[in-house]
Amino acid sequence: MNVMTEASTPAGAGSAVPGAGTKIPAPTYEGDFVLDEHLLLECGRTLAGVTLHYAVYGRLNAARDNAVLVCHALSGSALVGSWWPEVFAPGAVLSLDHDFVICINMLGSCYGSTGPGSVNPETGEPYGADFPLISIGDNVRAQAQLLDSLGIHRLRLVMGGSLGGMQALEWAVRFPDRVERAVIIAVAPLNAMGLALNHLQRQAIQRDPEWAGGNYLPQRPPRKGLALARQIAMLSYKSAPLFDERYGRNPNRNGEDPWGLDDLGGGLIGGRFDIAGYLDHQGERFIDRFDANAYLAILRTMDTWDPLHGQGSAEEVFGRIQARLIFVGISSDWLFPAEAVRQFAHTIRAAGVSADYRHMTSDHGHDAFLAEQAELLRLLQ
Amino acid sequence: MNVMTEASTPAGAGSAVPGAGTKIPAPTYEGDFVLDEHLLLECGRTLAGVTLHYAVYGRLNAARDNAVLVCHALSGSALVGSWWPEVFAPGAVLSLDHDFVICINMLGSCYGSTGPGSVNPETGEPYGADFPLISIGDNVRAQAQLLDSLGIHRLRLVMGGSLGGMQALEWAVRFPDRVERAVIIAVAPLNAMGLALNHLQRQAIQRDPEWAGGNYLPQRPPRKGLALARQIAMLSYKSAPLFDERYGRNPNRNGEDPWGLDDLGGGLIGGRFDIAGYLDHQGERFIDRFDANAYLAILRTMDTWDPLHGQGSAEEVFGRIQARLIFVGISSDWLFPAEAVRQFAHTIRAAGVSADYRHMTSDHGHDAFLAEQAELLRLLQ
Predict the structure, then answer these.
(1) Is the per-residue pLDDT at A190 higher than 90?
(2) N or C: chain A end with fewer CB closer than 10 Å?
(3) Rounded to a whole number, what is the largest CA-CA distance in chain B?
(4) Is the dihedral of CA B194, B195, B196, B198 positive or negative?
């Protein structure tokens, strides 16, 4: 793996491709860590033989005080160098010369960590629909065991956007003495519109007969449902101004005519507009790289995240944070609106925590943390 | 039909139920009008035996100068008294004592006018997927023939929201000497985000195997696909603040637990949040009252509407309007953003037309013209 690779690795949200010329760092190591014991999940169930797939970049120094944890978003992987290369650029946030960067695939995912496609050691069968609810806290507690195994007690920085930001904050809450700083981008507990968007993605998969109650065969996944889910997600990752600028009311660039007689699929469907062609393409690309049940598992992780749920007051829960926090809200983000991020930071600050809010102006919507990395980094310096 | 009925008739967008105590006027007549000749459609095809289902309220006066045309939105019907009762309230916009109100079901619909479920007289079979693209202009030209048959040359007012607003404006463009005033609510040519939302609704139906390329049997319609399409539409008809206020992050009011072990549908799905229960309910309600192919037909009518497409410059097309126009934009509408409506009115005014813009402040999103009728009427007085 110790070679420069192309930027084709899944990022997390809308998977923006970094600009041409951006160097893609290769991990110094990529592999699996298996937890010694069952993981007791917050939902009450236990998970046996838990595997975390992870990648590291750079070298851990002798003092073991140069470790940084980067957390990925919904459809991301452990290969942070591939999907967030610009944070490694000279003068940016991370340095391969000085930092030891770790990225761990989320539980529930299909990129190496234990997920619905994994075999349940207690039954010898894949979990499928029986895969339990994994919380962000469950992820973070498992990740802490991996860091223990690497001899890392304290993180100089933990950072992430979207679901990655949920993990970053949860680290600061769960392990106050192990986190120096946390950068939490474009995230707050999901509001009702966000829950609605996730619900419709879930519905798109569930309503595909090929989903088969979650027990589809690997060679016969619910491709149509997952593609539609991804298309709905793409709306929520982007913004209306960006769509207007890029696609407007243009006919699809392949030459289809929305007004034409020469219809695809009969008079009821017609030629596509450019935005429709774009969305279809996004759906098609996604079904070759992601698993429908993993998607459902992580949607549930995302929906249910609220650090205060059943944990006590804001003062009790957030008051124990020792890390300095930086929150970033994105002006055109309507999945996690900037105002919600600002409010969330305010709530945490009110509990006596150092919690700075920075506002990123961008038309790229939620995806801006991947699509406009240079602007994000400027804000973080 | 000449009785007071309950407000259970489809409205058009999100179908808000009028406040208790609102009187539902009954039509003085409800019936069909069949065009004498084939309708030559703008897409180049012809439609034979075109039927318009319509309802009228009040009486046409001797001078025949008290006619008002109200146009409905996507899933609406000719029974305007049932879905927009407050416009008939004493002192509101319309009066059953003084006005003769006509409402005509759109072509492509499933509420009485010719649509994909109608039998094609040339084949003896239902149109199904072969139903052609019907433009807003096609609708308006057919409606003009119905008005001719009633002996009505000039409309004192034509009004509508959403697709109804498209028809109202098109009346003023196509028949400059037949329209005195037009009220055009929450509409402009659909922007890229709107086209995207419609495309995903179309995809939801098309990807349901029961759709069968549009040639499903009436007893076996694509219910799951249509329900999901409706759910996507409901997001676009409402607003994030309204969802937060009404549903927030509450568990579904039926007692499901999003965090619970006691899951519906396995660990991947879980108990629903309240917003999810609401959306599922909306989907279920809709499939009993609407037809999937009709939905597709009207989505295409909506997508393709742009009065300037292939018609000339704004000066040429809008410059011929003689009516006084009032545009209404809704502050929280993200399907047809208020700013787009304002810009559209501005473009038309720049062509020398009397085009007033009024801004409706509401958290109800696009649906506000149905959900907050009293506020709308205040603005129009």
Answers:
(1) yes
(2) C
(3) 71
(4) positive
- Of residues B88, B315, B249, B227, the one with CA closest to residue A191: B249
B46 has which bridge partners?
A: B40
pLDDT confidence of A20, banded at 50, 70, 90? low
Chain B residues within an 8 Å CB radius of A213: 265-266
Give the list of residues 6+ apart from residue B343 with CB closer than 8 angstroms, or none: B188
What secondary structure letter does DSSP report for A128?
G
| A325 phi and psi angles, rounded to 5 deg | -110, 140
A258 in reach of chain B (CB within 8 A)? yes
Note the pLDDT of residue B378: 87
A6: pLDDT confidence band, cut at 50, 70 and 90? very low
CA distance A232 to A223: 14
Read off the tokens for A26: 């290769």
Residue B297 is nearest to which of A116, A190, A268, comparing CB atoms? A268
Name the region of A68 (left: φ>0; alpha: ψ -120 to 50; beta: rest): beta
**With the C-alpha atoms ordered A126, A132, A136, A138, is the resulting torsion angle positive or negative?**
negative
Residue B101's pLDDT is 98
Q: Is B303 a catalytic residue?
A: no
Verify whether the Cβ–Cβ distance B209 to A209 is below 8 Å: yes
Smallest CA-to-CA distance from B322 within B348, B346, B341 is with B348
Pairing label, strands B119-120, B51-57: unpaired
Q: What are phi and psi of B273, to 5 degrees?
A: -80, 165
Q: How far is CA B161 from the centre of its chain?
A: 7
Strands B100-104 and B51-57: antiparallel
Q: Does B47 touch chain A (CB under 8 A)?
A: no
Given a cut of 70, whether residue A264 has pLDDT beyond it is no
- Supply the DSSP string of B120-154, one letter for each residue: ETTTTEE-GGGPPP--HHHHHHHHHHHHHHTT---
Q: B203 touching A, CB under 8 A? A: yes
Q: How far apart are CA B118 and CA B257, in angstroms?
A: 45
Say which residue the tokens 């506020």 belong to.
B375
